[in-house]
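Archive maintenance. Older records in this collection stored only the sequence; we are now back-filling the structure field for every entry so that each record is complete. The fields below show one back-filled record exactly as it appears after the update. Entries are processed alphabetically, and Exodeoxyribonuclease III is next in the queue.

ARCHIVE ENTRY
Title: Exodeoxyribonuclease III
Organism field: Ramlibacter cellulosilyticus
Length field: 272
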Amino acid sequence: MKIATFNVNGVKTRLPHLLRWLEREQPDVACLQELKALDEGFPAEEIRAAGYHALWKGQRSWNGVAILARGVEPVEVRRALPGDEADEQSRYLEAAVEGVIVGCLYLPNGNPQPGPKFDYKLAWFERLIAHAKTLVDSEHPVVLCGDYNVVPTDADIYNPRSWRKDALLQPESRACWERLLEQGWTDAIRKLHPDAPVYTFWDYFRQHWQRNAGLRIDHLLLNRRLAPSLRAAGVDTWVRGEEKASDHAPTWVELDLAAATAPPARARKRRP
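Back-filled structure field:
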């Protein structure tokens, strides 16, 4: 199974890019972020014509997440991250696809910091950590993927010097990331490419794409049961090179689900 995450930066504006990518790479599951469209504006018909069923949660002008599944219907599990019923931002969607629990997330950017946006980022991260704790040891294979808006280490950015004040590199953001991993999640890209300069985002300024001055902020985390099935991981950088592309490139993993560890056996009751 191939699972990918892609911040499309406007699903209607980038629809031609999305459809070309789906046709060429054919992921089995595609998690999308930053739809920037209301529910009724989601291009469901075009995506269905490409062979994908979809769940989505939109929002006007920003945010919005979706889960696409090739040839099968994703089964919705939840439409919001637990922990704050008053939070109306569309940033989390969870579904079951062919036995795998897929969490699609768009973690807040947090800029400018310090300030209320950064406070919201950290509060949202705390809710994610709490929810992830319920999933890491699940008997089901689980992947939490999306735009985390966190550069985990200085090795995940072309040059950290000019980004030191950005919310993506703050010690608090990185500490939350480390606490998440410490639960037992596997960072798929770093598991298979521990030392390589892998980037998933190149902003539109100062020729960052042309100079390969990128950041790694799109991540796929595998729970303990799913991690043994990891076979490949990478970034479809060609998408970022398209005209008027998103500033992100799709990031993906290939999994051999037969290698996923079996759930722990339940103790049998002795007959009297």
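Update note: The chain has one domain: 2-259. Confidence is low (pLDDT under 50) at residues 264-272.
Entry marked complete.
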